[in-house]
Amino acid sequence: MSVSRSSGVDAVDLALIRELSRNARISLAEVGRRVSLSRPAVAERIRRLEEHGVIKGYGVHLDLDRLGLSLRAHVSLRPRHGSSRNPQVLRDRLLAIGHVLSCVHVTGANCYELTIAVRDAHHLEQVIEHLAELGDTTTGVVLSESVHLSDVDVAAWLLQGDH
Questions:
Q1: Are the C-beta atoms of residues 49 and 57 closer than 8 Å to each other?
Q2: pLDDT (0 to 100) of residue 84
Q3: How many angstroms separate the Cα of 144 from the Cα of each of 26, 92, 108?
Q4: Of 48, 42, 14, 41, which Cα lies nearest the Cα of 27?
Q5: Which of 35, 76, 103, 119 could form a disulfide with 15 if both were Cys (CB 3.0 to 4.6 A apart)?
Q6: pLDDT digits (tens, 9 = 90+) for 104-116
Q7: CA atoms in the 13 A half-sphere facing the CB of 22
Q8: What is the pTM (predicted TM-score) of this model?
Q9: Which of 95, 139, 133, 134 is nearest to 113 (CA)?
Q10: Where does the record locate the signal sequence feature (predicted)?
């Protein structure tokens, strides 16, 4: 197993993480049955993973299409104004614009890569106009998504080691 000793995470913890990643609402008893642990042992391990920050929280997976946000796009942003280069100011402005699902600071020609969700092409144009106030943008419309975050099995990566 290639899990780092310094992480304090073992194969049983990874099995718990895998089950919770698939369904965070699963009962502790059911997790215990799946990983061959008692309910109290599962609860203790999950508590420890939460305390150590390995498990940072639990969330809801939204179907954006059913919410009327069926068009997604990736926008590269190169801020041109001094205030837009401040990460906190940029964050606040992006949240105020809305429709930004994620924003990551990257290397390369552009400083930030955003993922946005909008209703349609007209709405996309409106959001891009707001983003253009912050800097230069380049946009690519998402046609389909082959791998979704909920498909990813990080526990398996750590058990298998680097390829």
A1: no
A2: 61
A3: 29, 29, 25
A4: 42
A5: 35
A6: 999 987 789 999 9
A7: 13
A8: 0.77
A9: 139
A10: none
How many angstroms from the chain centroid is the CA of residue 101? 9
Rounded Cα distance, 28 and 23, in Å: 11
Mean model confidence pLDDT for the chain: 89
Q: Please state the three-class secondary structure of 49-85 as a single string.
A: HHHCCCCCCCCCCCCCCCCCCCEEEEEEEEECCHHHH
**Residue 90 pLDDT exceeds 70:** yes
Q: Do 134 and 81 contact (CB within 8 A), yes or no?
A: yes
Burial 141-160 (b: 16+ CB within 10 A, else e): eeeeeeeeeeeeeebeebee
Which two structure tokens, joined as six digits, stand for 106?
A: 């990257």
Domain parsing of the chain, residue ranges: 5-60, 71-141
Length of the chain: 163
Give the integer Cα–Cα distance in Å for 119 and 66: 11
pLDDT reported for residue 79: 87
The one-letter amino acid code at 153 reads D
